[in-house]
Description:
Elements: H1 2-22, E1 66-67, E2 73-74, E3 80-86, E4 100-105, E5 107-111, E6 124-127, E7 130-135, E8 144-149, E9 152-154, E10 157-159, E11 163-166, E12 170-173, H2 174-179, E13 189-190, E14 201-202, E15 211-216, E16 225-230, E17 246-254, E18 269-274
Amino acid sequence: MKKIQVLSGLGACAIALTLFAGTSTTAQAAPLSETTDATVTFDENDGGVNPGDNGLIIPGSPDENIYVPDGEGKSTTGPLRFTNIPALKFGTVKIKSTGANYESQMSLYQKSLDGKVPPAADAKLKIPHFVQVADERGGTGQFEVKVSATTFTSGTKELKNSRIQLYNGEVRNSSLDMVSKDNDATALLETPALIAKNTPVTIPTEAANSISILKVKAGQSANASISSVVFSQGYTSDADYSDVSTNPYVQLNVPQGEQPEKETYTATLTWELSDTI
């Protein structure tokens, strides 16, 4: 009986192995899976305080370490805001009996090369005059910039016929520049008043007749980006303007017959940023 029990045990073992081998190709059960959500709610950015702290960049570059020294330009706050509007300085010029055009001095900015905020006062950077808008509303991304100016006055004295003239407008947008440096933004932005290249456009002295110098094209959106118009021709962000003293694309036209005296005359430019176009 003992010998039979041992043989029975070996036989049972052999049968079990055969059964295991026969079921080794059975399909495995699919792994369990389930999903969860990650959520974020965006709201408009009502920040923006000082130039350089609110997104001022070199047009055509993702570089944000640019600051505006006192007297060179201004900015505004809010979800749709100017990050830069330029001051125009024509300097000291000679009186001419035949009339003349005087080019504006180049704008001076400060660039932080070592991460210091604000940068050293001597870290000067020349850039042609530009207007820049940040749109952080999270909406349609539509806006328009217009400009007008008063006449040049000094006390009660007035240059009744002298006018500021703009010659060119090169457009840039930060979202496009992140993809390709100095990318063409003309499919997104336009400069309605600066249609003809190298043709002077006069800034009117009546607010009701202000001219449109930067606008988002119909059907396009500049949301969550920074847009610029640079008053220059063939502008690039890496061009070296260090030896350029004046900008030929921003001029003061003093026609023959005007009689300026030895005075400092001032005109006030009004830059209007609207979310309706």
